[in-house]
Design goal:
It is built from 14 helices and eleven strands. By secondary structure, the chain is α/β, with parallel strands linked by helices. The longest helix is centred in the last third of the chain and has 24 residues.
Amino acid sequence: MKRCIAAAALAASVVFSSHAMAESFDLQSVFGLNVPSIGPSPVNWAEKVRLMTAGEIDIKVHGAGDFVPPFEVFGAVSSGAIPMGFDWIGYWAESIPVANLVGSMPFGPTPEIALGWMFEGGGVEIIQKAYDAHGVKVIPCHLVVPEAGGWFSKDINTAEDLRGLNMRIAGLGGQALAKLGANTQLVPAGEIYVSLETGRIDAAEFSAPQLDKGFGFQNIVKSYYFPGWHQPSSWDSIIINMDVWNGFTPEQQTIMVEACKANITENMADQLNAQIEAVEEIEAAGVEIKRFPDEVLAAMRDAANEVMQEEAAKDPIFKEAYESLTAYIERTARWAELQALPR
């Protein structure tokens, strides 16, 4: 009841007037603001918007759970209970199937190809069509480098070792592992550590080493696998209630998009170095860094392709995005081939 009252009060407090000199809006992230890299990202974006609008738009950023539980942020933005949110796109796959593809396409694009497709290859225009049905504007705003393959309490030597494994994994990668016999589940970020510690799950993936290290997984699990086959790149986004979005001037809307592009550049600038530093610290904690055997990766790829074909058959926007992104990956691959240097 208190939550409903708070949400109603919040909605009432965010009445936009195009004639006002300064307007304040609340934004809730699905992440804690102290989470490395992604935690401060919406704060940095809000600061850029404030700067670029000369203070006309003041966005107050709140962490996970401040108004609603993390997995309820999309619904709250859609209904107007919260004006804005910050998310990992894949969390909303149940409502928006294409979010699964954009959030984590197994064996998908590298970050630079994902960036090109999103803003220059028609990606954002395709996915916005899915968000329109929910009254939400989506702005891709944080691009994550390839993730780790995950933390495992036992060795993975063959695909058969995945059978019966209880693993926290999100998105299409989770569906692929389910085809290989794993028991997959989506555990909120803040509950992963305890779930591993208590044995509720045998394995977990969350993100890249920089973020994983911050959660302390290296203190309880001693096998850390690569590559991040399930998420070679992924998107976090700003989501804005469409009525709120339409209340902004075209110039203000452009500023918000451009602030996200600046945010992406900033968060990508030192991510590779940050991952190596994190890997070294994780190793120093006694963790063994391992690679999935090629046989296992081949089985994962086959399962993932099957999953994506099934999803494409069920949802036309997923199909459009899948075909568009796949074609973009294949076409741009020639550039990498032409520029490949001998090692």
